[in-house]
Amino acid sequence: MDTLVHFFQSIPYDQIVIQTMNGIVTGMILALVASGLTLIFGIMDVVNFAHGELFMLGAYVGVIVLVATGSFWMALVLASLVVAILGAALQIVTLRPLIGRDPLNTILATFGISLILQNYALWQFGPVARKINEPITTHFNLFYLEYPWYRLVIAALSAAIIGSFWLFLKYGKFGVWIRATTQDRVMAQAMGIPVPWVHTGVFAIGAGMAAASGVLFGPLVGVNHAMGLDWVLKAFIVVVVGGMGNLGGSIAAAIFISLLESYASIWMNPSQAVIVSFVVLILTLLFRPTGLFVPTPK
Amino acid sequence: MTEKWKDEAWSQDIWYSGKITRRTALGWGGGVLGAAMLVPAPWQAAFGQTAPYKIGSLQPLSGAGAAGGKTALVGVEMAIDRINKAGGINGRPVALVAADDESKPDVGRRKTEKMLLEDKIDVHVGGFLSNICLACMPVFEETKVVNMIGVCLDTTLTTSKCNRYSFRTFDYAPAQAVAIAPYLVNKMGKKWHIAFADYSWGQSTRDAYTAEIKKLGGEVVGTTGIPLGTADMTSFLSKIQGNFDGLFGIFFGKDGVTIGNQAFDLGLTKKYKWAGDGAIAESVNLPALGSKIEGFVGINRYIPVFEGPLNTPSHRKFFDDAKARLLKIDSSGPLPDRYVQSNFEAMNALKIGMEKSKFQGRQDTMKLIEALEGLVMKEGDDFPQGGGLLRKEDHQAFIRQFIFEIKGGKHKIIETVAGDKTIVPPACKFASA
């Protein structure tokens, strides 16, 4: 009995609350990045290695718009639109000609795009990291910390963007086309759905979502040419753990993994805590290769 | 109206007047390529057919470390251009062979081997990320080629992993710790928490600062190692709490920007005194840190200001040249940083060593090493930072240090520590040649 009491007394409740908030905020950003990635894979069978660079380009476009207009919200909207258009152009020029070829071709193509975009950003913007000023700078007291309201805004906005996208998929005409194409590409084409344009549209939406997350996250880290690298690996883990192509699964996996890492950091050192996501990935691949958040295959 | 000029006689030769055949295109392409090959390298106009010294420079020009690698390369280019303009070394021009390590140790080692075995470089100046320097140092030893480290700060490069062929013409953590620890303990607070980049440089630097703070009667109450490239450090920073006076950060590059922003966002930099390695507040990082880095106290071997001992004509020359070159790679016009400075000065130290030893090629490597050992780097155009001593026992230099504060978004010198006041005993044993 004493051991049990001692155990409950030793739980750092303040840390648990703080890390829950950290995990949810990080998870929502990751979910926004990963949902674009999983959507592109789900409908096109393309593993998009350039997703992190679309995240980074979004942040750079955000910087340019912010300097020109002074409005963070304008930067968020315009960066998403510009990168969505760029994504559509990339899909038409580089991925559409590869449809039906071995998946290795698209992997190499997107990897090549990623290198080009990264080096383009370095050449165009140079080595100096840029700043996006957050629109909300106030804090609230959370135990011993001053917690920024902006982090909660990021979580809320990410949830709103993902929620809107879900409604669009469920009720929008183009959303229905996307779902139909995901289920059966050949049948969708037979029913008159313009599948090549659905592919282009989906790539554009995925790119726009990556750009939005780049702008939202920019104020926390500064904008540089390599900022996408840090997120894309984790987004791939999330997509695999959530079930490749499963939007809901990816969102759940993003929050699940981020919360696990945050809780792990209470008792482990950071280097050990970041391994948690890899452990989850390995266990998923071993015991549930279709993903944690999809029904068990019969 | 606008098309009328095409009808003019003078325009007939340059305006497209028929279809371009593959043969025409190949002919023009071949011609342009041939002409390009005939254009002499910049140094050939001055030196005729004299064979140049080949100076290799491994830098991260792509990948996570590319931002720093680009400015580091500017330092080497500046020094080489200046040397060539002044007549070269021993009457021979200097040619740069730059290689991109892609911020990866395995690639770095492969490219180093290529520079040494295929490009046949005579000497090397460069290396940015410590893990890449550690991976490549044995290759220079095997091929018996002098390696002037450009940026890598890992302590062990000139202590437990030292070798006879590698030199560091700038500071390292034990010397920095000796320089700033009295300020930290006597003027900022006795109890410190250290947050560091959890890799070779961060770990060795943490150990050096911990030892020095303890030696002066202070205490390091906790340390937090954060993996390199962690985008969201909040989970780890949120754990930092307790009764201590100051938070000391050991980060560089984009991780420096991340901790600067996120430690401020969580109120840590208001609750505790905020100090750290100068790489956090390097001039290329300041725009992304904005007002969140105000009040940060750091230590650095170089800061781009004209105060105190840095208010010299030599520094002005270095600063102006570096600024103009940096403007070409970044339109926002960054100021020079320590990466430009240390590569510039490493190349100049090499020049002096090559002249002193009458170095002609790899066969003279041992003579060059002897010339560099114990080199006194005198303040002036070659060493605008202030110069210092390149110690014979471990090939480690001891140079002037600047303790600074960020005020109004700019560096302000608080204290200057002379290089000879930062000397620590050597901890290197060279393998017998």
Describe this structure in words.
The complex is a heterodimer of chains A (298) and B (433). With 298 residues, chain A is mainly α. Chain A has helices spanning 2-10, 13-44, 51-69, 72-95, 103-125, 149-171, 173-183, 185-190, 195-221, 227-242, 247-267, 270-273, 276-287; strands at 139-142, 145-148. In chain A, a hairpin with a 2-residue loop joins strand 1 (139-142) and strand 2. Chain A is globular, with a radius of gyration of 20 Å. Chain A starts with a helix and ends in an 11-residue tail after the last helix. The model of chain A has no long low-confidence stretch (mean pLDDT 93). In chain B, helix 13 (338-357) crosses helix 14. Chain B has 14 helices and 15 strands. Chain B is an alpha/beta fold.
Question: What is the structure about, briefly put?
Answer:
The complex is a heterodimer of chains A (298) and B (433). Chain A has 298 residues and is mainly α. Chain A has helices spanning 2-10, 13-44, 51-69, 72-95, 103-125, 149-171, 173-183, 185-190, 195-221, 227-242, 247-267, 270-273, 276-287; strands at 139-142, 145-148.
Please mark out the parts of chain B with pLDDT under 50 across 5 or more consecutive residues, or reply none. Answer: 14-18
Shape of chain A: globular
Structural class based on helices, strands and sheet pairing of chain A? mainly alpha
What proportion strand of chain B? 15-25%
Oligomer: heterodimer
Topology as H/E string of chain A? HHHHHEEHHHHHHHH
Number of helices of chain B: 14
* Count of individual domains of chain B: 2
CATH superfamily of the largest domain in chain B: Response regulator
Largest sheet of chain A: 2 strands, antiparallel
Largest sheet of chain B, in brief, is: 7 strands, mixed
Poorly predicted segments of chain A: none
The radius of gyration of chain B is: 24 Å
Strand order of the largest sheet of chain A: 1-2
